[in-house]
Amino acid sequence: MIVTERKPLEELAAMLAGEQGTYLVACSGCPVGHKTGDEASLQQLEADLRAQGVTVLGRTSIDFLCNKPLVALRLMRVLEEIETADSLLVVSCGIGVQATAATVDKPVHPAMNTISMGGFQGLWPSEERCGQCGDCNLDVTGGICPVVFCSKSLLNGTCGGSDKGKCEVSKDVPCGWSLIYDRLAKTGRLDQLSKLNVLKNRDLMRVKPEQRRGSIWALELIEPEPEPQPEGKPA
Amino acid sequence: MKLSELFAQGKFVVTGELGPPKGCHLDHLMHEATKYLSRVAGINVTDLQAAAMRVGSLVTCKRLLEHNLNPVLQIVCRDRNRISLQSELLGAAEFGIDNVLCLTGDHNILGDHPDSMPVFDLDSVSLLHAATTLMGGKDLAGNDLEGDPPSLCLGCVVNPGADPLEPQIIKLKMKQDVGAHFCQTQAVYDADVYKRFKDAVDKAGITIPIMGGLVMLKSAGMAKYMNRMVAGVFVPPDLVQRMTDTDDKPKTSIEITVELINGLKPYCEGIHIMSLGWDQYVPAVLDGAGL
User: Cβ(A1)–Cβ(A216) under 8 Å?
Assistant: First the structure.
């Protein structure tokens, strides 16, 4: 299971500022198990966003957003609602955000930071991969992760080695920043690139001690800690 | 001497370039530099160029200072994290190095240690940001520096022949915004390509001085190799033909370089000559171009 945590409300509000309305797409897989995207969390998220003046036009939940064919199929059902929205706000790990962005020609915002997947890349991953950096910037990068798709994991745009969409390491490797540039151009969001100057906090990708209690970290996380018993009394 | 002071005086600035050797002896390089590069305003020292292990840029720059030459310290982000990069910048300032060129660096897969770990904790933009932050008296973690902060002239690079060009322009604007004082370009062999680039630069509101980059052609084979392997560098067929037909490669190379300087000069604030070991021909280039 993939470990995610909700982005700070101020960051979400800043992403959505100036939009008329957003549509919520939630993953019913890991975020439910991890209680960052279960029904209660989603209701709380909607309430928090509304309090910030954000209009949430609707919501749909899909079993495993890493399953890209399913994402396309399910989003077809709510096409009309999505078309009226300025953007999609995706409650999932970085893979789900990227799978959604690859499916819909709309700005896609990540609602979560993906901390650790222990190398796990979803149940039905397609080309999308998440860098598990703990500080998701897919909002600015057109829903394509530069940590994974740039050979140097550069965060502030293309290097001088990019040539006609290919990376300097091999003509067979696409330049990740070229993919990002094309996606942003396609969705009319090239101005996002001027928001860069990212200095990554590498500490955020470190798995915290409380998340590191076994080989299936996330599963253990949802087990409540036993209540401490008063001394002298048997549990 | 900071290159920015020369630009401020309205001078057309010319820089050269040295690549440190794979070994621990710099006497030959210093001999070449003092003999052939004493007329340029600054000498770039590449930082583990082409991702090949060799003696470092900072050490070589220090040696140039001892010979009263003005080094431009190149720093790449491939091999060190932000702690080490900031330390290197402080070290440069302590040595009295005035100019630093901040680059991302080639991927190590392209070099002679492809099995090494790429770092890229920072990139060219965040390295410039780090340098600017240090010059403000703090490090990237917000800690105060002791004493007067370093005072450096910060350079950056751009590739005018990149296809597409717009991402390069966007990034160059970011570099200016985070504190770059000047820019040197990747090699250009066509004044029209440079002019198109310059128009895009002006349109984007980029105002820092830009020095056109020139790599001296050593042979037709080298030109063809660059066309095949180096992103955004295109040597036109007529120049390749001239290098093929010539009986005197250095002479033809000097002629071509002088012609290119004359072609670029109206559109740039300086020229960066990358002689790739042909340092002995740089004086002839400068004479030919009246520089």
Answer: yes
